[in-house]
């Protein structure tokens, strides 16, 4: 064997080693897959963590954009003229707005604030778009204490791209800042789906230009940093209004949340956060039942916000249907509300039965205590020229939503 230049290695004595059993091979295979799966999970966690850290900002402050010339917080603590304001963009919200007005009159009619006697009695203003609201609705609004104030429709930016029809008119809310033109120095805005449980005079005495309540979401966002635009405390300023309009097209924010997202961006660095009792979003009862129980049982709730469930219909009627202004429409609206109230009481297994009952009591109280004024309104407008002209003029879209929202709707036809 020397010819191959290496020494001969003899074979080992004894038996050859037997191959591993099949179960050992199976165990090794499973361990390999386990290690592989753990590696994939680890890599995925690192990747998702990087995406989260470098991803889209979660709040308006993460992507703050300078839209204002100054940082202003203080304002007069004893305004000469105050107001409580709501909005009405179509007749669909007539009964909710009437119920809100009645709840206000329960606490503000013929009484003054014992804690803030120097503050003036707030006016109760209803901002509305003239060609959208029927004479009957305006008459009913006056019957519960609202003072109608016409404003122009403000179209959403970017031709309404990314915004649903339900929020197509919400940018008209920016008209709140024009009320300094009629002498209002401080106002509290209330959405039409809110209900007043107690006076809130202390808000008018706060030395701030803008304040709101942090939002609450039923999903993973939970208790958010951003505020809910359903209740706002603000100092009107035409200069701020013009600046809001000037930056609508340039500002970057989620379009689906409409004016609420824009206001969160615009006032993100200076908005004063109010306690939840001033905008008691029903979602709080889902997220934190103990918090809700503490607020409601301590008689601290000022304003309840019926975000979900709502005891009344809130979607616009189908195109081509009559939107209000007649006795028949009002009676149908009442029947619809009765059904919706019962449905809302059963939502989430009856979780909100008590809160829906608060709204129902106020609505029925309004129907009872204002029945004479409401009947007078129906007599005044029945068969009138205004109702007849409104019923037959324009296209079916204009009859249903008004020409401004009709134009907005055309942009969403697919």
Automatic annotation (TrEMBL):
Q: Which key words are in the record?
A: Membrane, Transmembrane, Transmembrane helix
Give positions of region: Disordered.
379-399
Q: Which organism is it from?
A: Hericium alpestre
Q: What Pfam families does the annotation carry?
A: Glyco_transf_8
Record's superkingdom?
Eukaryota
Task: Report if keyword Membrane is assigned.
Answer: yes
Q: Write down what this protein is called.
A: Glycosyltransferase family 8 protein
**Which terms does the record give in the GO molecular function aspect?**
glycosyltransferase activity
């Amino acid at each position: 064997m020397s010819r191959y230049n290496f020494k001969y290695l003899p074979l080992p004595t004894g038996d050859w080693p037997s191959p591993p059993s099949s179960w050992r091979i199976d165990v090794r295979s499973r361990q390999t897959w386990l290690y592989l799966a753990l590696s994939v999970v680890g890599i995925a966690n690192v990747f998702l963590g990087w995406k989260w850290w470098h991803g889209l900002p979660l709040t308006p402050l993460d992507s703050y954009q300078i839209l204002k010339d100054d940082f202003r917080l203080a304002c007069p603590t004893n305004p000469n003229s105050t107001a409580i304001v709501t909005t009405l963009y179509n007749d669909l919200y007539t009964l909710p707005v009437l119920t809100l007005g009645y709840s206000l009159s329960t606490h503000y009619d013929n009484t003054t604030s014992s804690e803030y006697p120097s503050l003036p009695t707030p006016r109760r203003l209803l901002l509305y778009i003239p060609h959208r609201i029927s004479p009957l609705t305006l008459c009913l609004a006056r019957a519960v204490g609202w003072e109608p104030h016409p404003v122009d429709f403000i179209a959403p930016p970017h031709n309404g791209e990314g915004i649903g029809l339900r929020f197509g008119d919400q940018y008209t809310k920016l008209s709140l800042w024009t009320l300094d033109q009629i002498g209002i120095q401080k106002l509290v805005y209330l959405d039409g789906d809110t209900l007043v449980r107690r006076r809130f005079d202390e808000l008018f005495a706060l030395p701030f230009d803008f304040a709101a309540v942090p939002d609450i979401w039923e999903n993973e966002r939970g208790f958010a940093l951003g505020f809910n635009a359903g209740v706002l405390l603000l100092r009107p300023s035409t200069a701020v209004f013009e600046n809001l309009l000037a930056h609508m097209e340039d500002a970057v924010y989620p379009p689906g949340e409409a004016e609420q997202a824009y206001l969160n961006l615009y006032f993100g660095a200076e908005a004063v956060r109010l306690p939840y009792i001033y905008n008691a979003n029903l979602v709080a009862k889902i997220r934190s039942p103990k918090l809700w129980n503490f607020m409601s049982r301590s008689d601290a709730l000022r304003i309840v916000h019926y975000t979900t469930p709502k005891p009344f219909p809130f979607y616009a009627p189908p195109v081509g249907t009559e939107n209000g202004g007649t006795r028949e429409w009002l009676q149908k609206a009442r029947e619809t509300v009765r059904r919706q109230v019962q449905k809302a009481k059963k939502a989430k297994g009856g979780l909100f039965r008590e809160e829906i009952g608060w709204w129902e009591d106020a609505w029925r109280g309004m129907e009872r205590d204002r029945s004479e004024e409401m009947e007078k309104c129906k007599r005044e407008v029945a068969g009138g020229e205004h109702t007849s002209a409104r019923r037959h003029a324009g296209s079916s879209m204009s009859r249903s939503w008004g020409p401004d929202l009709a134009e907005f709707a055309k942009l969403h036809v697919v």
